Amino acid sequence: MALPAFEHTPLDSIAATSARVRASFLSHKTRPLEFRLVQLRKLYWGLKDNADLIIEACKRDIGKPTYETHIVELGWCMNDIIFMTNNLARFAKDEKAQDIPFTNTFVRPRIRKDPVGTVLVIGAYNFPIQLSIGPLIGAIAAGCTAVLKPSESAPHAAAVMQKIIAESLDPSCYTCIQGAVPETTALLEQKWDKIFYTGSANVGTIIAKKAAETLTPVTLELGGRNPAIVTKHADPRLAARRLLWAKHLNAGQVCVSQNFTMIDKEMVQPFLREMKIALEEFYPQGARQSPDYSRIVNQRQFQRLKKMLDDSNGKILLGGTMDEADLFIEPTVVQVTSTEDSLIKDETFGPLLPILAVQDLDEAIKIANEVHDTPLGIYPFGSKAETEKVLSQTRSGGASINDGFFHASIPTMAFGGVGSSGQGAYRGKASFDVFTHRRSVTSTPAWLESLMDVRYPPYTASKAKK
Ligand code: NAD
């Protein structure tokens, strides 16, 4: 199948492109709902018509199984568009302002939903279509114009998205810039009304600093280091299967996957037994032969993961096979003994599953708060009282009780981090809201002048009495 070629956008064209997209916003072209709906519908058909290219691109970039591409990339975005087009009129409608003192109700206070303006969307590689097109859907729906900068680490997917955007959308309003650090740096020099960034916290810091120079608002969807906790009252089979699912998808290259699992000392052996069974059930011929298992995105990430495992003082209990030529890393369970271990200190973002035995739930909560007090997700397995205790004594962007990151797989539920795992949220209505300015508006009727008179000087004694 002939995939379009990935080509870096010439650096000297970036300023003009962003100025063109800004001028289109200022021409008010994207304001009418009908325009936005047409663009969203065109994007839907662009995705559908290029489904085969998307599937092939995701396969080449990250070895993504077709089934997963259908669910988490293509189908995800198409459903998102259906949701947005079905609900756009409701989302965009003015809201009556709430909690208004009676005397102010005569000026009809309301909230208008205005587009924030021209936005830059920067995507990550692991869900290359969803993490780029998802925010773009929100931007189009909100009436913004937008430039998308997909991740260069998934070049085939980036090139297919560029083709779809160029062929489907109004080119004066939406466009794609391809490239890596130099191109993104050039983009950050331009004027934006919002920057929506998905990726690592390190790069998120660069984006936020640059944006702060011009007081440009940012939404940051950042990295994980998410803890899972398995108490002595958890069901070990459920915990093993669900946590393996959360680490096998995309070969663990998922921001919301658990980074490490703390297990009550009594539950370690039952959990490991079940994990071994789950691995055999998921991959009867082994993960390597399975068509349902992805690959690591590139050599750099493969080497990073290999080094992490080499540096670990843990004991490999299951898996451990790697093949650089094939960018394959087997799901690998490692028993570690310290939170200083390389597999816990940093985000693995790969199929390495460190487990740490703990004395009890209190110790697990203490460690969770010490390792990263605001992770993207937390995953407690245990009784209702135990899992509620975890929620009430920790913070995180989201949480799934008795599951790995299930909360993050609900496409219409707001998704985002907290503290250093991110700021702002999107998906469902939140995708519209994140690109919308809630503009407070009042309208003072002429007949109110006699009452309004109290605000004008001179501030006479009789006015003070009113
Ligand atoms: P990354 O930060 O390396 O790259 C993301 C984007 O930033 C790319 O488009 C890249 O071109 C750009 N970029 C990289 N270096 C830059 C620099 N110096 N200046 C300007 N731009 C730069 O992230 P990644 O490797 O694509 O993704 C992995 C990270 O993203 C992990 O930490 C993961 O947890 C996180 N992530 C978060 C979410 C979320 O929704 N919270 C989703 C996916 C991935």
Automatic annotation (TrEMBL):
InterPro entries assigned to the protein according to its UniProt record, in alphabetical order: Ald_DH/histidinol_DH (IPR016161), Ald_DH_C (IPR016163), Ald_DH_N (IPR016162), Aldehyde_DH_dom (IPR015590), Aldehyde_DH_NAD(P) (IPR012394)
GO CC aspect terms: cytoplasm
Domain Aldehyde dehydrogenase: 21-441
Molecular function per GO: aldehyde dehydrogenase (NAD+) activity
Gene3D superfamilies attached to this UniProt entry: Aldehyde Dehydrogenase, Chain A, domain 1, Aldehyde Dehydrogenase, Chain A, domain 2
Highest taxon in the source lineage: Eukaryota
A Pfam family the protein falls into: Aldedh
Keyword annotations: Carotenoid biosynthesis, Membrane, NAD, Oxidoreductase, Transmembrane, Transmembrane helix
Positions annotated as active site in the UniProt record: E221, C255
Biological process annotations from GO: aldehyde metabolic process; carotenoid biosynthetic process
Keyword Glycoprotein among record annotations: no
Record carries keyword Transport: no
Sequence similarity: Belongs to the aldehyde dehydrogenase family.
PANTHER family with a match to the protein in the record: ALDEHYDE DEHYDROGENASE
Protein's name in the database: Aldehyde dehydrogenase
Organism field: Lentithecium fluviatile CBS 122367
